[in-house]
Amino acid sequence: MIGDMEATLESLDLYFRSNSLKVNETKFELLPHGTRQNLRNLPSFTVKFHESRLAPCDEATNIGLTFDKYLSWDSL
Asked: What's the CA gap between 46 and 54, in Å, rounded?
């Protein structure tokens, strides 16, 4: 699972760089999402991206919207 995520991030980074775009890893957030049952069974993990280790977060903000890991909008 983690190897797949790291490979996908690397592939996306290659695509972005080949199109003169850049991902700022200091602003990158890893937000796993799913049901409460599924997330309760999710083991602790980190994902390597460039020189950073990304740990899952409970909420992420994008273009002014805050998403929680259950995609429930409860944090509003």
From this structure: 5
Q: Which helix (H) or strand (E) element contains residue 13?
A: helix 2-18
30 Cβ neighbours under 8 A, 6+ residues apart: 47, 54, 55, 56, 57
Q: What residue ranges in 1-76 does DSSP mark as E strands?
A: 47-49, 52-54, 59-62, 65-68
Distance CA(28)–CA(17), nearest Å, equals 16
User: What is the model's pTM?
Assistant: 0.72
**What's the CA gap between 26 and 54, in Å, rounded?**
10
Report the SS3 class of residue 58: coil
In 3D, which of 14, 11, 1 has the Cα closest to residue 41?
Answer: 1
Six token digits for residue 21:
């775009």
Q: Mean pLDDT per segment of 10 residues, for the chain of length 76 residues?
A: 89 95 86 90 91 90 88 68
